[in-house]
Amino acid sequence: MSTYSEPFGPIYVRPDNPDCPDCDCCTAALCAAGRASVSECAGHVGDETLIERVTGCPCSAESTRGTLAWRAGMVRAVTFATEKPLRQELEELLTLVAADSELGDLADLLPKVAVRRYVWWRPGMRPVLTDFGRAYLEARTGPRVESLVTVQSVDKAARTALVVIPVSADQPVTVPLDALANSRTQLDAESLLTARLYAEVNPGARTADDVVVTKVRNPAVIPPRPGSPDGAR
């Protein structure tokens, strides 16, 4: 506990924040902030020693399925797959990793896909696809269709929204709030509940968590005409 002296009275004691019950590196308050941020727990401390201690906290880590950082990573992987795909030999490498096949000369390219966090790999070990690598490959080979997206509820503290997507899942889907409420949709958290949105989704998703929502659009917003210098609509 930290203390400070008051010259005219008692010594005041500032209570420590309780430890997080789900990890051994953070306080409960820090993990609450980390879970609701793509910066994870490490992005919410300023002390270098503390940063080292909490980096990779499982409560907020990008590698932990269901965290906000993980959801953002899934959106990023699918966005790259549909808008800026890898060159052919890197996609071939991912396909071989997915099939647990011999990599041959392509093994030398593993660091290039590992840095994108599409594979989990250490020298001397067989590489495996991460959730992001799997999402990338599925977006390259499987269908993505536009669907109506109806917002059921918004959790501003967690920075997420619960949405209904008829073509992809039989249960509500958790989506990063910033994917829906942003400058492109011209919506905020409150107005999402009455908005009619559309987005590209993967209809073959195995679970609600595997549904990845991209290219969200608000039909009430008319985009600027291409090539218009003043943004005229």
* Overall SS class: alpha+beta
**Biggest sheet features:** 5 strands, antiparallel
Strand/helix succession: EEHHHHHEEHEEEHEE
Point out poorly predicted stretches.
1-8
**Helical proportion?**
25-40%
Give the total of beta strands. Answer: 9
User: What is the subunit arrangement here?
Assistant: single chain
**What is the mean pLDDT?**
88
Identify the strand order in the major beta sheet.
7-6-5-8-9
Could you say which overall geometry the principal axes of the C-alpha atoms support?
globular
* Strand-residue proportion: 15-25%
Radius of gyration, Cα only, in angstroms? 22 Å
Distance between the termini: 59 Å
Number of helices: 7
Topology:
Elements: E1 2-5, E2 11-14, H1 28-35, H2 48-54, H3 68-83, H4 88-98, H5 110-114, E3 119-120, E4 128-129, H6 131-141, E5 145-155, E6 160-164, E7 173-176, H7 177-180, E8 197-201, E9 214-217
Antiparallel strand pairs: 1-2, 3-4, 5-6, 5-8, 6-7, 8-9
Structure description:
Residues 1-8 have low confidence and may be disordered. This protein is an alpha+beta fold and 233 residues long. The chain has helices at residues 28-35, 48-54, 68-83, 88-98, 110-114, 131-141, 177-180; strands at residues 2-5, 11-14, 119-120, 128-129, 145-155, 160-164, 173-176, 197-201, 214-217. The protein is globular and about 55 Å long. A hairpin with a 5-residue loop joins strand 1 and strand 2. The termini are far apart. Helix 3 runs parallel beside helix 6 (131-141). The strands form 3 sheets. A 5-stranded antiparallel β-sheet has the order 7-6-5-8-9. It has a two-stranded antiparallel ribbon with strand order 1-2. A two-stranded antiparallel sheet has the order 3-4.
